[in-house]
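hi! just following up on the protien thing from before. the input was this:
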Amino acid sequence: MDSLMYIPNSLQLFIKWIQAFDIRILKNEEDVEKKFILPMFQHLGYPDTYRQNKYALVNNDLENPTKQLKNASIYFSTDNAIQQNADTSLVMIIYLSPNSHHFQEAITQSKFHGRYLKPLFFIITNGYSIKVFKYLQYHREESIFDLMIDTLRNSEIAENFYWRLNFNFITKTNKNILNNIKSPQFNSIEKYLRRHAAFGNILEKAEFEPSLIKEGNRLIIVKPKVLIECNSPQAFGKGDCLIKFSSVILRGLTITLNHQQILGQLMTGLHTKPEWGCRRFIKQIDADTFEVYLGQTTLTLSELEVADLCLCVDAVCQEYKKTIIEFEDYLETWDFKLLKFTNTIGFHLFSVDIKLWKIMHNFIKKFNYAQGKSEWHLFDQSNISIRVSRGIRDHAFIVPQLSNSGSVFSNNQVDILYEINDVHIATLKRSNLNSWQEDIGIRGTWTAKYTKNWLLEIYIPKVINYYSQQFQVLEFDLNKNILNYPSQNTTLKEINEIKDVLPYLRDIQAWLQMHIENLETSCLKQYYQVFTDLVRNTDSAIAGLDYITMNLQKILWENPSAEIFRWEIWTFKDAIYYLDTQVVKINNCKYESSLKADLITRVFIWIIENGKINYSQGQLNAAKQALLPLWKQCRFEMRHVYPYR
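and the predicted 3d structure came back as:
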């Protein structure tokens, strides 16, 4: 009963105060805060202990002035300073000097900090006028009041102002109210409503406000109809993302994708239009409707919705892909086979005889870093692995794995793995450096390549010498049982013979064979042109012309109207002619069937492997340049995308 009596009495006191307020007492910014804002919110029922000034945003650089609210008051639903955060924030007020008209800048500042504080309302005032906005996360703010202070002398306006902003009312507002309609079958309803101006305006106001926020490994990309919040993988950890929609039908639906789903579903076909058929998770139903597969959820989206979804996916996946590639580049792991276990990731460096592994591991027990200060006291005692560490910083984790019975090696062989585990990642994160990349090096975290060379050239010779002197172990008997794996291919930069590009072409052909979806032609145009020019000057007496013919005819079967389809006898000159037609065709279209690219690559491989080609240094260099971006795309997808498809 007391609560019911409190509001009317407070309302009358508020109206009495605002009608008596004299704006002429405001001379500066401090007056606006202390003589206008404080008494106003006291009359609106906000306790002073629930307020903070100059609120410092959590988890941000406080030395950066843009990350601190200097001319603001924030009211919370609690007086507990520890609990005053985004979950309890109610109103944010930015106050300006009486002669200031920088409202737009203040609104921008409020929206920026609103992303972190998430208040229900934010207010801008210079004491003469006041603007009140309802804060809607990821949506455009809604203007509630835009008044001159003098207009609040009107009792009806003042009463409306009070009821919308008083403490009792605002603390009962649910900050997480959402529309939970989740029926994609009614996609056509929104289309129908948009055709009518009045409804169209309502729907447009409900759209998200476009923005891009990047904080460390967290990326939030917002388009009018779609929002994606993504946590990119840290080092070789796992990321995830959350997808929301602004449409009336889908509002309230939240889709979460894990690391495997992001890589397996979203990563291919980036920066392509949805109707091109390059994206795995999109299927076109008709001219302006698409079926979308996100995790275990299937949605029907409009053309505009799927366009915004693709823009968000492109931004998120580009950052996601960049993070993974940078990690492999910095740690020099690309040349080693990737092996994944429950809580660890390993890269196979080489293999050794089990007897050699045993004395390699026994060596670390005698040279624990805590038991001496020699150059070889650099190991941390562990179970079965070799942890190269001086206690302050880990250099490398080396783990043994017995070769399985199905391998070409005997069960007496131990695979030596360069391991990335949770401890390793935590060590990188604990570094006082700005990023984990800065810790890579001989005095910090070792790369896979350096670790392999150190083991083969320094550590194993030291171990063999140490035990040979003590136990007369024959150095030859142990050393001969190191099974080293040379790099798979000669690097493109070092290639001087055309046949040395064959391993790269075979990698690309295997990738194209598995790809299924269409490919954007921008990644194929130079490749088609350069390799067609390269094989043009091949001796026409090449063996296996029927194999070349068979592959090119498979392309023709998809284009039966082509004139060349009626030819019964093909020569090598005909094959080159048809390759030329494919070069012309691909330069006049946006996407290409991965099957066609696969077949053409098979033709290039056969000609280079079996033909006598007269080529120049310029043509060889152009071929290497054309292969590099395509092969890098192939390498990334075969290693990180296809295992999750």
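Residues 1-7, 58-67, 177-186, 405-410 have pLDDT under 50 and may be disordered.
The longest strand covers residues 344-353.
cheers
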